[in-house]
Specification:
This protein is an alpha+beta fold. The protein contains one helix and eleven strands, in the order αβββββββββββ. It holds the Pfam family Rieske.
Length: 136
């Protein structure tokens, strides 16, 4: 970046910061940090998590940026931060995860099936003991 461009952007950032605003990018080059986490537990006997007992069900964790999916009785978890633009809370599921921000699609293993995203969702490890899942 040239000095003039840097000064121009720095001035814009400073002005926006004064109003409490930030610049966000829609770049495919930036991958958001995975969220979700380390030792978080989910009780499948409690709503809304109880629906994950049904094969082919899914859930966006109500308090964390985590997508959960039950495929044939096996539950997987992924960061809900879309690898295209970082959107975390605008998801639907129809056999695959669909980010509502720009239409990227991911299969139930987290792999991209349709862009603009180019990299997979970050997988979160899941262990299960009875009705309790431990994530991360």
């Amino acid at each position: 970046m040239k000095k003039r461009e840097f000064i121009k952007r720095a001035g814009l950032v400073a002005a926006l910061a004064g109003f409490g605003l930030t610049l966000e990018s829609c770049s495919e080059d930036e991958e958001p940090a995975p969220t979700g986490g380390s030792g978080l537990t989910v009780d499948l006997s409690v709503s809304p998590f109880s629906r994950l007992k049904d094969p082919d069900s899914w859930l966006l964790h109500p308090d964390e940026n985590i997508l959960l999916v039950n495929v044939g009785g096996s539950i997987s978890a992924f960061s809900s931060a879309c690898t295209h633009s970082g959107c975390t809370r605008d998801w639907t599921f129809s056999g695959e995860f669909i980010c509502g921000c720009h239409g990227s699609r991911f299969n139930t293993t987290g792999q991209v099936t349709n862009g603009p995203a180019t990299s997979a969702l970050a997988r979160i490890s899941v262990s299960r003991e009875g009705d309790v899942l431990t994530l991360g």
